[in-house]
Specification:
The protein is an alpha/beta fold. The chain is 40% helix and 16% strand.
């Protein structure tokens, strides 16, 4: 149905077609998407299509007048709220797989994925840890996670992904950190930013290691990474103590940050931007974004799901199409 904010259907049909996956049906993903569909902000930037088990979408409040729904056809009932399991994992993966097939054939312009449970995927034997790992395997391309708050102009890229904190140091290497800087620089240029964005490299240790007194990773890994990035023409400063780096980024003195582990990025981002955080997977042959929150099993089905991050993810995806 053409939203009444448009004077005619031709204008609506020029908008990019975005596929919204259901995510884990026991969580807040489906209801967040349905709430987002009622937003004039979302309707102004895209044509939505929902992908997943029909019963999951119906329970979340879907009606045909809101958007088309492509049923994944597993015939599964919606799982109890807050109680995920193998069937919910299979349903969320089926939605992702169908979205990928549509994107690979050019039948949708972008994918916005709702949150899944990594634990449930593991227990169900899915074979992939998360969306990003699946897409990388299917495309044969290395991808990176840009975590961002577009409304606040905050952008950072993770040099590591979902790994335990005690494995971060051993997982870092100069080449990967330099590649992350190159990737973020290119991503910011794609958004219309400066040709050579000002990037900051966060230190791993307190005070960025205090010249080796508080840790050696800055000297052993980050300084060589800095040299490699600069030799490639990347405008990168650092290593900078993470608290200072974030203050400078929020003040607009840096255009983006290279963060070394999950919480070094997410805690400041969510403190500064609240629920408007988005995950943008760069390096894929199509656009993929997702809200920067989890499944929210504890509030699922209670009418508390906030669509802000889903709306922000859709707006970013549409702007990249």
């Amino acid at each position: 149905m053409t939203p009444n904010i448009f004077p005619d259907r031709r204008q609506y049909e020029k908008l990019p077609l975005l596929a919204f996956t259901s995510g884990d049906g026991a969580g807040i993903g489906p209801e967040s998407v349905i709430r987002a569909l009622h937003s004039p902000r979302l309707r102004a930037v895209c044509r939505p299509v929902l992908i997943g088990e029909r019963q999951v979408w119906l329970r979340a409040g879907w009606r045909p007048s809101l958007a088309p729904c492509l049923d994944t056809g597993l015939g599964l009932k919606a799982p109890p709220y807050g109680k995920t399991g193998p069937s919910a994992a299979r349903a969320s993966f089926a939605a992702l797989r169908l979205a990928w097939r549509l994107a690979a054939r050019g039948l949708v312009d972008a994918i916005v994925t709702a949150p899944v449970s990594k634990k449930s995927w593991h227990e169900a034997g899915i074979g992939y840890r998360d969306h990003t790992e699946y897409f990388s395997a299917q495309t044969g391309r290395r991808s990176e996670m840009v975590l961002c708050a577009p409304g606040k102009k905050l952008w950072c890229l993770l040099a590591t992904r979902h790994i335990p904190l005690n494995r971060v140091s051993s997982s870092l290497n100069a080449a990967a950190v330099a590649d992350a800087a190159n990737c973020l620089s290119a991503a910011l240029r794609r958004l219309g930013g400066p040709f050579r964005p000002r990037l900051g490299l966060c230190g791993l240790n307190p005070h960025a290691g205090e010249e080796g007194l508080l840790g050696g990773e800055e000297r052993r890994i980050l300084l060589p990474a800095l040299k490699r990035a600069r030799s490639a023409g990347i405008r990168l400063e650092g290593p900078i103590a993470a608290d200072t780096a974030w203050r400078r980024h929020v003040e607009g003195k840096l255009d983006g940050l290279i963060c070394l582990y999950h919480d070094q990025a997410l805690i400041p981002l969510k403190t500064a931007a609240g629920l408007g955080v988005v995950n943008w997977t760069v390096g894929l042959p199509f656009v993929r974004t997702s809200p920067g929150h989890g499944t929210g099993f504890d509030i699922a089905g209670k009418g508390l799901a906030d669509p802000a991050a889903t709306i922000a993810a859709a707006e970013l995806a549409a702007s990249l199409c």
